[in-house]
Amino acid sequence: xxxxxxxxxxxxxxxxxxxxxxxxxxxxxxxxxxxxxxxxxxxxxxxxxxxxxxxxxxxxxxxxxxxxxxxxxxxxxxxxxxxxxxxxxxxxxxxxxxxxxxxxxxxxxxxxxxxxxxxxxxxxxxxxxxxxxxxxxxxxxxxxxxxxxxxxxxxxxxxxxxxxxxxxxxxxxxxxxxxxxxxxxxxxxxxxxxxxxxxxxxxxxxxxxxxxxxxxxxxxxxxxxxxxxxxxxxxxxxxxxxxxxxxxxxxxxxxxxxxxxxxxxxxxxxxxxxxxxxxxxxxxxxxxxxxxxxxxxxxxxxxxxxxxxxxxxxxxxxxxxxxxxxxxxxxxxxxxxxxxxxxxxxxxxxxxxxxxxxxxxxxxxxxxxxxxxxxxxxxxxxxxxxxxxxxxxxxxxxxxxxxxxxxxxxxxxxxxxxxxxxxxxxxxxxxxxxxxxxxxxxxxxxxxxxxxxxxxxxxxxxxxxxxxxxxxxxxxxxxxxxxxxxxxxxxxxx
Length: 494
Fold this sequence. Notes:
By secondary structure, the chain is α/β, with parallel strands linked by helices. 34% of the residues lie in helices and 19% in strands. The chain is built from 17 helices and 19 strands. The protein has helices at residues 11-23, 42-46, 70-82, 120-128, 144-156, 171-176, 202-208, 233-243, 260-268, 282-289, 295-299, 319-329, 351-362, 374-384, 441-448, 456-472, 478-489, and strands spanning 2-6, 28-32, 53-56, 87-91, 105-112, 134-140, 161-166, 185-188, 219-225, 248-254, 272-277, 304-307, 313-316, 343-347, 366-370, 387-388, 401-404, 429-432, 452-454. The chain has an eight-stranded parallel β-sheet with strand order 7-6-5-4-3-2-1-8. α13 (351-362) links the parallel β14 (343-347) and β15. The longest helix has 17 residues, at 456-472. The chain is elongated, with a radius of gyration of 26 Å. The two termini are 38 Å apart.
């Protein structure tokens, strides 16, 4: 179950949001009484309430907004119990002198906005002794391992426990806590109503992550990277899981650059089955799990980590084939997708460029590389036997195929382009690996000059589809994944 927090200053807006949530399928709502600008009117808030409620009034020392005295606050919580609120949230230090009454269930809580203490077990035991129906233990994650420890505590608790970690490093624990026994998790009304660090919206919890469907048997997958705030991989993979009716969930796991190895060891205790891997961990994953005979080794990076049938970790790079397939989409059908002898100019020298260059070279194309940092381009060109040109001279290359592997033109920098509009050649194929927005300025200007174009959406979906097939052992629903990605980027589409 998902408890949706409502924090508004006016009773009228609390009631309106409560009704709206009930209409959207919410089954439990937390009323943050401390947010109200005037004395909370419990009879008004609880009369004909459309869902069960948790009455919460958080003090300022607990990052709440209560402006009255402590005796007034505790009186308000007692009144909520007498009024028959289904749950009341009581901090551990006051739970002992607010007695049980009627059918109201007691949530005895502790919040730590700075860290996840080492003595979680002792804190939990202290809360459970306060006549708790439910223990709520919420802390700040300073590493993904903090969130793993919290989920392990929830799994071993004798008293039903809502336990998860705040912050970006703890988001996956909000999604997965039900799998380990939490009676519910918390979410917010929408993105403009976030009441705690890392809080997800009700719609994300219910429809994207399908929280209410997650069980002990649900297969776990995720994306590893830093940052991950704008990653669309969870949308694409979870939509595909839902389309195929698979009991699986895909969560974002933000991992700082220096924490990959220990994080993977920590996550192993939860039973994850596979990961998409993004910046800055593609090289480190390959070094830890790759073998010299892996195709990813030649690229120098892996973007996928999955368990084989024997349970051993395997790596692969799905960007390579995805890039080739995307380029071939734009070729003249009379060429039958052949790249042999074609002249290609690749902009960039990062991970995506390495995969693109390798694919083009293996397809016997003639490749030239240009990058702002010329030494990186020179190194890549030497490794794969290509030509290199200085960035300022890139428009002098007469190419059949232009591939942008830089982030230039990516949202929110929609007015940027890595290539001069006047330098496009007629019938040139222009492939932009940027997928957000789908219609970049580079592609717009290329079409105006009569060029054929392929967007980064195709490469993103194809690399994700290859991952999906490794994760699940079944064909990926390409159209479903493509529609999900386009839906995810639609607010910035032109």
